[in-house]
From TrEMBL:
<keyword id="KW-0816">Tricarboxylic acid cycle</keyword>
<dbReference type="InterPro" id="IPR001252">
    <property type="entry name" value="Malate_DH_AS"/>
</dbReference>
<dbReference type="GO" id="GO:0006099">
    <property type="term" value="P:tricarboxylic acid cycle"/>
</dbReference>
<keyword id="KW-0472">Membrane</keyword>
<comment type="subunit">
    <text>Homodimer.</text>
</comment>
<keyword id="KW-1133">Transmembrane helix</keyword>
<keyword id="KW-0812">Transmembrane</keyword>
<dbReference type="GO" id="GO:0005739">
    <property type="term" value="C:mitochondrion"/>
</dbReference>
<keyword id="KW-0560">Oxidoreductase</keyword>
<feature type="transmembrane region" description="Helical">
    <location>
        <begin position="158"/>
        <end position="180"/>
    </location>
</feature>
<comment type="similarity">
    <text>Belongs to the LDH/MDH superfamily. MDH type 1 family.</text>
</comment>
<dbReference type="Pfam" id="PF00056">
    <property type="entry name" value="Ldh_1_N"/>
</dbReference>
<dbReference type="InterPro" id="IPR036291">
    <property type="entry name" value="NAD(P)-bd_dom_sf"/>
</dbReference>
<dbReference type="GO" id="GO:0030060">
    <property type="term" value="F:L-malate dehydrogenase (NAD+) activity"/>
</dbReference>
<protein>
    <recommendedName>
        <fullName>Malate dehydrogenase</fullName>
        <ecNumber>1.1.1.37</ecNumber>
    </recommendedName>
</protein>
<dbReference type="GO" id="GO:0006108">
    <property type="term" value="P:malate metabolic process"/>
</dbReference>
<keyword id="KW-0520">NAD</keyword>
């Protein structure tokens, strides 16, 4: 059984390249793309790639339920990116409501799906998602994820450019812990010996 994957925010700066990577996966049978604008063009372009995943486009809130119905994996890069001068609170105030609306629909249309949240600030949007899923009695901590891969890639690049270390000599570990009363997201510099220890 090949999974159905839904990308919410598929026409954005993260959503488009993410959808391209997913379309190339031989493991996916259906790729459902959702956004509030431009998603039909993105879906049309991706549908020309000769892989098994069938691409469908879903535009606007009226088509969100159809996009999510039967999804095994939901990935959420939707939201506004952080702009120069914008505080974390500004970003949260905008993106929290977006994530809340999308998660509410997930709870109703694909309650057993694995949900991966990319929308920043991740350490605040994931707890919001958890609370909404709990409200619908479908919360499973093993099926809700905060994705910080992009932060790790960017951090490694910035550090290498600053000549603190090379791509091969250093790396970052992001510790991501969420409790009801605690939010914590911090980069930790570590060396290759630590990497070997964990492997």
């Amino acid at each position: 059984h090949s999974p159905k994957v839904a990308v919410l925010g598929a026409s954005g700066g993260i959503g488009q390249p993410l959808s391209l990577l997913l379309k190339q996966s031989p493991l996916i049978s259906q790729l459902s793309l959702y956004d509030i604008a431009h998603v039909k063009g993105v879906a049309a372009d991706l549908s020309h790639i000769e892989t098994q995943a069938q691409v469908t486009a879903h535009l606007g809130p009226g088509e969100l339920a159809e996009c999510l119905f039967g999804a095994n994996v939901v990935i959420i890069p939707a939201g506004m990116p952080r702009k120069p001068g914008m505080t974390r609170d500004d970003l949260f105030n905008t993106n929290a409501s977006i994530v809340a609306e999308l998660i509410d629909s997930c709870a109703k249309n694909c309650p057993k799906a694995m949900i991966c949240i990319i929308t920043n600030p991740v350490n605040s949007t994931v707890p919001i998602a958890a609370e909404i899923l709990k409200r619908h009695n479908v919360y499973d901590p093993k099926r809700l994820f905060g994705v910080t891969t992009l932060d790790v890639v960017r951090s490694n690049t910035f550090i290498a450019q600053a000549k603190v270390c090379s791509f091969f000599a250093g790396f970052l570990i992001f510790v991501f812990r969420i409790l009801l009363c605690e939010r914590f997201l911090a980069p930790l510099l570590a060396g290759t010996q630590v990497l070997q220890f964990f492997l």
